[in-house]
Amino acid sequence: MMAGKLTAGAGILLVTANVGSLFEDPENLQKTWLREFCQTVQSHRPQFVALHCQEVGGKNYEASMTHVDSFIKELLSSDAMKDFNRVRVYLDKNYTSQEQFTALGCCYFLHESLKNIQQFDFRAKKFRKVVGKEVYSDALSSTATLEKEKFPQDYFPECKWSRKGFIRTRWALADCAFDLLNIHLFHDASNLVAWEKSPSVYSSSRQKALAYTLDRVTDQRYERLPFFIFGDFNFRLDSRQVIERLCAAASMQTVKATDSSEVDKLIFRETDNDHKVVLQLEKKSFNYINQDVFRENNGALLLEFDKELSVFKERLHELDICFPPSYPYSEDSSQGKQYMNTRCPAWCDRILMSASAKDLIGKPENEDKSITYDNIGANVCMGDHKPVYLFFRLTTGPGKPNANKHKCCVVQ
User: Fold this and answer.
1) Could you give the dihedral angle defined by the CA atoms of residues 379, 382, 384 and 387, in that order, rounded to the nearest 10 degrees?
2) Is the pLDDT of residue 8 over 80?
3) 146-156 per-residue burial string, b: 16 or more CB within 10 A, e: under 16
4) Are strands 147-150 and 165-173 parallel, antiparallel or unpaired?
5) What number of H helices and E strands is found in the chain?
6) For residue 250, is it within any domain?
């Protein structure tokens, strides 16, 4: 049972979920998604839940954005969330404003047993007590309790325009204050371009946008606090290197488009065994002969090719990954474990943190596993992304990062 005391540290559940698929096929996917999410909440019994969503409204948002409100309504009214008596929901749904639209959604749930929590007002530069349930979906850019930015278009010139950006909120819980950032970085537009060099041009674009975000959250405008940054980073395996490993004993055939000299397809065949096709690579196709390699032992053999975070090893930290690549899963509701043959599976969805935030994660006092970094809905279809979550107990007390520092600016 959850208790009001925070002596052992409040239970914190951070979840990131690219939910685009849910609004493309709400009848088949939303109910399953909500059930699995609620089961995760009920099994860990946190006192603070932060759900960061990307692609709110789906890829065809003009047609699918109407499903968002019913999804949020069902989430708020579910049995798992009934004891969370304070809620803040921020939904960037205004797709008519292409200069600002990010399709990000941030949902924060505070359990009734949590007595001492405030949220930061960035305009007034003060913490304020959180009361009631509020949903914001209009004019997020002028909402005082968050910061929202969309990345400059020249960061990702391959697309005419992009929804990628980040939202930042700040919280003070017990005697700790911290930032939570929801982020969506640029995708790989073409498997063929990603294969051309190591690291790929897309990796460089993501690196630039992430560095920009980290510079913003650590600049001098506000007090620097521990931060957790979780979302769809779109981190990919080093395509050139992973293909060389998977196709080490294969020969490569280049197929060019009939109306130009551009490469249209790469076909890797075994040099013997009747020249069986091992991998067929196209702009939006990654058809590999043996998907099991991405699932066996949670894809551990491929983690060495997951290199994009290494650039930030001095600024960002992550717990050990013990779950399979989170993308791209089949959107067929009967194929919960199957990957689509569109992209090389990768750990796109992550929960990262600053060094000071890592210090806030309490260590298990006994053999009970009280820190968990895992995915949700491993055996069922959750859309093309599996949500990823981190559960931990917040370390509290004197001597911890920012202990009691925020209390001087709390406004009741």
Assistant:
1) -90
2) no
3) bbbebbeeebb
4) antiparallel
5) 9, 19
6) no
pLDDT tens across 196-242, in order?
Answer: 999 999 999 999 999 999 999 999 999 999 999 999 999 999 999 99
Rounded CA gap, 117 and 45, in Å? 18
Does residue 61 fall inside a structural domain?
yes
Does position 67 have pLDDT exceeding 90, yes or no?
Answer: yes
Give pLDDT tens digits for 333-345.
999 999 999 999 9
Q: Domains in the chain: how many in total?
A: 1
CA distances, 163 to each of 94, 167, 195 (Å): 11, 12, 24
Domain CATH code at residue 104: 3.60.10.10
CA distances from 221 to 218, 229, 244 (A): 8, 19, 46
Encoded amino acid at 226, one letter: P
SS3 337: coil
Please tell me whether residue 269 adopts helix, strand or coil conformation. strand
DSSP secondary structure code for residue 385 in this structure: S
Angle between helices 26-44 and 68-77 (to 10 degrees): 30
Asked if residue 3 has pLDDT above 50, the reply is no
Q: Is the pLDDT of residue 161 over 80?
A: no
Q: Is the pTM of this model over 0.85?
A: yes
Let me know if residue 253 belongs to a domain.
no
Nearest CA among 99, 105, 79, 124 for reference residue 23? 105
HEC secondary structure over 175-220: CEEEEEEEEECCCCCCHHHHHHCCCCHHHHHHHHHHHHHHHHHCCC
The pLDDT tens digits of the residues spanning 76-126 come to: 999 999 999 999 999 999 998 888 999 999 999 999 999 889 999 999 999
Range of the domain at 349: 11-236+291-411
- For the segment 308-324, the average pLDDT, to the nearest whole number, is 97
Burial of 303 (0-12, 13-18, 19+ CB in 10 A): middle
Each residue of 198-227: b (16+ CB within 10 Å) or e?
ebbebbebbbbbbeebbeebeeeeeeebbb
Alpha-carbon gap, residue 266 to 279, rounded angstroms: 8
Residue 228 falls within a domain, yes or no?
yes
User: CA 315, CA 317: separation in Å to the nearest integer?
Assistant: 7
Which residue, chain included where needed, has tokens 């600049």?
A: 219
